[in-house]
Design goal:
The chain starts with a helix and ends in a 16-residue tail after the last helix. It has a two-stranded antiparallel ribbon with strand order 1-2. By secondary structure, it is mainly α. Helices cover about 55% and strands about 5% of the residues.
């Protein structure tokens, strides 16, 4: 009788540990997929901006011979982008890397990634846009 009890206890313990391991793996997978979805949204969403209500314009300087990483880190340090790495991917995917122009720009956290890319590549925002930011 005692042997049956020990075997049953081992089975229960093995089942409980296996269940905990599976729950932990499931939790990690959910977190990884949530992070991946959030990052993809930051890269591809057209209305993605850091803070829609913050219209305070910040002056950002893009130096000559700056890499994409340097430009995105400068924008992140200035507090105008939500995710510098997502902006880097967006610039790479859109082939905007060679179009970035050095200069001083006025950019607000309410600008979307597309608007920021338009500004730093020397373009201007649409006239019907409520925001204004031009290359100085």
């Amino acid at each position: 009788m005692a042997i049956d009890s020990a075997v049953t206890m081992k089975r229960i313990l093995r089942f409980a540990i296996g269940l905990l391991v599976n729950v932990f793996i499931l939790f990690i997978l959910v977190k990884v997929f949530a992070f991946g979805f959030s990052f993809a949204y930051d890269v591809f969403a057209s209305n993605n901006c850091k803070d829609k209500s913050d219209t305070k314009v910040v002056t950002v300087t893009v130096l000559p011979d700056s890499s994409i990483k340097d430009v995105c880190e400068t924008l992140d340090d200035a507090g105008v982008v939500k995710n510098a790495y997502a902006l880097m991917v967006r610039i790479r995917i859109g082939s905007y890397a060679a179009k970035i122009k050095p200069g001083t720009y006025e950019i607000a956290p309410s600008y979307t990634n597309d608007e920021i890319i338009t500004i730093i590549t020397g373009g201007t925002l649409d006239s019907d846009s409520k925001k204004s930011g031009d290359n100085k």
